[in-house]
Amino acid sequence: MEFLKEVSLLSIVVWAPALFALLLFLIPYNKDEQSQIDSSLRYIALGGSVLVFGLSMLIAYQLLGSESTGLVNQLAEKYSWFSSSWIEVNYQLAIDGVSLVLICLTTFLFPIIVLGSVSINRGLRGYLISMLVLETCIIGSLLAVDMFLFYFFWEAMLIPMYFIIGIWGGTNRRYATVKFVLYTVFGSVFMGLAILLLSLLVYRQTGVFKFDLVSFQSISSISSSLSTMLLLFFMFGLGVKVPIWPLHTWLPDAHTEAPTGGSIILAGILLKLGLYGVFRFVLPILPGTNEYLVLFMALGVIGIIYGALVAMVQLDIKRLVAYSSVSHLGYCVLGIFSNTVEGISGSILQMINHGISTSALFVLVGVLYDRIHSRQISDYGGLAKVAPVYALLFVFFTMSSIALPLTNGFVGEFMILRGAFVANSSLAAVAVLGVVLGAVYMLSLCKGILFGEVNPKITEIKDINLREAVMLAPLVIMVFVLGLHPNLVLSVIDAAVRSIIFT
Amino acid sequence: MIPLIVALPLFGCMLSYLIAKINGRDTEISGIVATCAVFGSFLLTVLLTSGLGESGPIRSELLPWLSYNEIRIPLAYHFDKFSAVMTLLVTGAGTLIHLYSISYMHGEETGRFFSYLNLFVFSMLNLVLGENLAVVFIGWEGVGLCSYLLIGYWYSNRAYASAGMKAFVVNRIGDMGMLLAMFIMLKEFGTLDLSALSDLPATSAVYLIGLFLFVGATGKSAQFPLFVWLPDAMAGPTPVSALIHAATMVTAGVYLMVRASGILELMPDLRFIILLVGVITSFYAALVACAQNDIKKVLAYSTVSQLGFMFTAIGLGHYWVAIFHVLTHAFFKAGLFLSAGAVIHSCHHNQDMREMGGLRKYMPVTFACYGVYLLAIGGVFPFSGYFSKHLILDGFSSSGLPANFSGAVLVLKYTLTVTAFLTAFYVARSFFMTFFNEYRGHVHPHEVSPVMYIPLVFFAVLATIGGYLEYVLPAAFGEVLEHKTIAEIVISGLKGSILAYAGIGLAYALYGRRVNSLDSTKGTNSSALGVLVRIAQDKFYIDEIYSVLIVEPLRTLAFVTWRVGDVLGIDWIVNSLGYSVQATGEVVRRAQCGDTRFYAFMIALFMLLVPWFLL
């Protein structure tokens, strides 16, 4: 019976957001009471997303409470999806520490996004439905251990994201949307090929096409050339999402054009799914690729420096933050391919940290955009005078972003660099340069919008209001909680991380 | 008790901000709360220090923090005699400067100011009490943040905001060195404890640790080549300059190097590098200070120069002497800055000494205190500066550096001797320009309030008697000093002050009765000396050189990376791929035109072509 309880819980957390989306869909239209309906839609979505957060906490509670199996891939749910004598595809969900913390991050950010939907002034219903469907897809791909199912959720994510950027985005949204979707699909084709090839290998061994992780892991021998090809195919698909340099150019456009909520989802969660895929599938299935670890660590380091350099000369606030994501995700790439406990754990910790601090920065940029409708740095200046609380928060999250000790950013970078130093000192030493460049671009941004004479365009601007404060408060708290006690995350992911280290 | 010492200023930081927020306006209460918080820390430190003798070092662990896998890096504090000295300095000088600020910052945004100032003290306490390098790094970066916030306190002036940013970024370059040192140490020895620094083996990795720690120190302590931020940091309110950019934060590098003395003892080469950097910085900054007309700029370059003296002491292997100079320097330099603040305050924010003069009549207390500080920093016996500076110069004879360095060391010794002379000269110059002759300004100057001059008097007393520490301090570092009789001390003291007399005398000759024409507006004096003065005024164009060599190339690189790498490079490929698919579709679509004659033509064409291919 205990087993059954857990069974349903994973599926519930996956599908609950979709159910709420359906609920929103069923609420009748009424042109005359549009604003009333809008606010009730918002409350339902908010309630739903908070409920899902509660569910993820419940899962965390159950998972951490059970001492039986540790946290290594408790295979919790498995139903046959379609199968015959030669093929077997399962709806198979499982959870370990790493998926748990990423799910918690997802469900933690969604209420904030729903709160931010106030600034969506047309098609609110569609926006919220898209968001909730997206949440289902994200959680689904974080729990799927059958690669067929994973691929399903992975691709399904594109549909709501397509609408979110394409309908509620900025002026250049068409280009951004098409670029984002084509980029991702192009990468995914290769990943799909890799999955098919793997299942073909399983077929050659067992006579049945299977897609689950365990079968893939038990493939007895992959020739080194085939393994290289598979790795590159996977990395092409997953690397677009991360993004690993040089597959990153969709990101600045998509981030910049997306509405605030979309940017938060993109930066906070979607980018992490690429590295989650690396962690969940690539490293366990294709181990023994030591020489490629260095290649990808190097790409990570290039991303750190390159992203930071480009961020330094951006004139658009969102674009600057977007390039800072390229740089930050470079650290995560560096860590996850270091094949050390600290490096990989630090990488996952840094995904959480980046999810917190960059989401906060996007919320803050959104606050400005809602009021002034401009993202240009030159349209601001002197905000510290007219909106002191805003300025305080902006500097605060800047410090989190540039990894000041006692904030969350520091512990993540520290762990990653610690691991990277053990794996490859010279690459790690170059990565440390990012510490200086990060300070340069973030502080120039602060200087540009917060300091100097008050720009005449913003003399009437209002400081942070209560709703925005409620959105940011949890993020402020998390910055300190993780900055002071990173073991909150590290202890949860430890066992899962250890299981994929190879010697 | 240690966590409480650290936490009090943090509470003060939040309280003073909240008080101003809740009140809706800025009042003195913020300042009083902040001052009390720091004073509370000071009292607790005194209590703790007095009990230190019998029990040995005290440690206190708060959180496991970065302890993960095999590494243990807790958030823990460690209180030994050395920390005690530094903590007393930070909280003691901190209290006086907080007190002074209550009056100085009257009418400004005091809530913000005092919360930053308390946050600074909190960070500084982390720095000097941290048990391992990571906790030290909390303070290290924390003081950088506070420095950034306080330099840019008057952020509406974009130049001030830029100065703050410059300080942060240049410091970060140093911090990078510190991070590298930490990671190498972790990789090689698996620990970051400060106590482990003293017994590392003499390997190349340890050499790198020492070198990178020194890079970190040059950033925070404004040594060559990373000193450029400190003169610009004078954009902050003057009490900030006194506390952060004279007495405490900039000595963090000295603190760190003394903690790493175990490594330096193994590496004479490294010590020689430190010595060289110290003397060069010291001499360069003294030259520049001689030509400045902004009273705060004189003091800023003076600080850089005096920090060079401290690094010289470290390079010579006399670690406690470096700390001795940290202390005496804190007394007279904090005092000098606070006096300068009083002068600026009374001249309505004018900082140009050419428009001052004759202030001794209007501000007798400030005048007297400034005179005491002058004697102290100049190195006149028996004021405090004499003792520490004398020990540094004497130290050249017992450096323990290998014989092959001896020629270079001798040159450095003479350079530093000249620097000591210049020190007396430029401070005396500022003294005469400010307080002597007739008043040349426009507003009416007046003496400052007692809240401001009481700290001045305190520092003046300390600057006078601080030399006594020579007989207390060595015990804290386990060193024994040779015993001298009073007569010996006095005689060598009078002899050792000659340089100071000469410097002050020269300054009096040049500035005692008039403002020297060399300092008048730029470009009017074309004599060789005039040109030299102008070059020194322009800091030997160091900022311009950095701009050409580093800042502009980096900006260009960034721009090229963006326009060429991203837009022309990767995006061009991406877009062309996209368009080529579209274009192919376009061409193929045209083929489906529904025109029978076109189809017939194509069929005929292929019928002709296919056999040709086959044959």
If you had to describe this structure to a student in words, what would you say it looks like?
Chain A has 503 residues and is mainly alpha-helical. Chain A has helices spanning 2-26, 34-65, 97-116, 124-143, 147-156, 158-168, 173-206, 213-217, 224-241, 250-257, 260-285, 290-312, 317-336, 341-372, 383-386, 388-401, 408-423, 425-450, 466-484, 487-500, and strands spanning 74-83, 87-95, 209-210. Chain A has a three-stranded mixed sheet. In chain A, helix 12 (290-312) packs antiparallel against helix 13. Chain B has 27 helices and two strands. The N and C termini of chain B lie far apart (98 Å). A two-stranded antiparallel sheet of chain B has the order 1-2. With 615 residues, chain B is mostly helical. In chain B, helix 4 (81-104) runs parallel beside helix 16 (319-346). Helices cover 73% and strands 2% of the residues of chain B. At the A-B interface, helix 7, helix 12, helix 14, helix 16 and helix 17 of A face helix 6, helix 7 and helix 26 of B.
Set down the secondary structure blueprint.
The complex is a heterodimer of chains A (503) and B (615).
Chain A: H1 2-26, H2 34-65, E1 74-83, E2 87-95, H3 97-116, H4 124-143, H5 147-156, H6 158-168, H7 173-206, E3 209-210, H8 213-217, H9 224-241, H10 250-257, H11 260-285, H12 290-312, H13 317-336, H14 341-372, H15 383-386, H16 388-401, H17 408-423, H18 425-450, H19 466-484, H20 487-500
Parallel strand pairs in A: 2-3
Antiparallel strand pairs in A: 1-2
Helix pairs in contact in A: 1-2, 1-4, 2-3, 2-4, 3-4, 3-11, 3-14, 3-19, 3-20, 4-5, 4-6, 4-11, 5-7, 6-7, 7-9, 7-10, 9-11, 10-11, 10-13, 11-13, 11-14, 12-13, 12-18, 13-14, 13-17, 13-18, 14-16, 14-17, 14-19, 14-20, 16-18, 17-18, 17-19
Chain B: H1 2-23, H2 28-50, H3 52-55, E1 58-63, E2 75-79, H4 81-104, H5 110-129, H6 133-151, H7 158-189, H8 194-197, H9 204-220, H10 229-232, H11 238-247, H12 252-259, H13 261-266, H14 268-290, H15 295-315, H16 319-346, H17 359-362, H18 364-378, H19 384-394, H20 406-435, H21 450-465, H22 473-476, H23 486-496, H24 498-511, H25 528-537, H26 542-591, H27 596-614
Antiparallel strand pairs in B: 1-2
